[in-house]
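quick one, 223 residues, struct below
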Amino acid sequence: MRVLIVEDAADMAEAVAIRLRRAGMACDLAETLEAAEDYLAVQRYDALVLDINLPDGQGTELLASLRARGDRVPVLMLTALFSVDDRVSALDLGADDYLVKPFDHRELEARLRAISRREAEQKQTALRLGQLSYDAASLAAWIGDQRLDLTRREIVLLGLLIRNPGRVMSKERLYEGLFSFADADVGLNAIELYIARLRKKIAGASVTIETQRGLGYRMIADD
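---
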């Protein structure tokens, strides 16, 4: 899951990002509407955390622009002052949820997962392929009744593949899901390393991660 945090309070934004990264999310930070638009122009996100008051305008302006162009990315609004009118306005513009500062980071994480699950690809959190089971809500996986010991990025990679059984996922798409712009020193070939590690850990699950040369990878159930 990749999240864009649009918040000009740098300390708070970084603290949120650290919490979400520990929970398996890749996070990018933007301090202005302009910076957020730059990120959105080149990157797809699974969710946005969007502050209302920003140095160059209102977060609701970005929200309205996203919805006007048909972008349904889940948006959670943040603000220090949130009257009933503010809440109604944000929800009418297409916000999926809101939090009033100060907030508990655990609640932010839970709400982000909740609004993401509302999207079509996240409606079913418990998935099974072969003998392999995956639960998006708890970020856990099992072979039969044995829980797998997976790192944060390994479980995120597994989630990307098992949600798309039989579909070829490009290296670029997998990279987007695992790494943020802050991980610029991590090359695209890191995906090969994580695929190799994941293959070893799911051995015996009656599933195969196939390499489609020049295209990417796909996960299929063994016959």
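Residues 2-120 form a domain with the Rossmann fold fold (CATH 3.40.50.2300).
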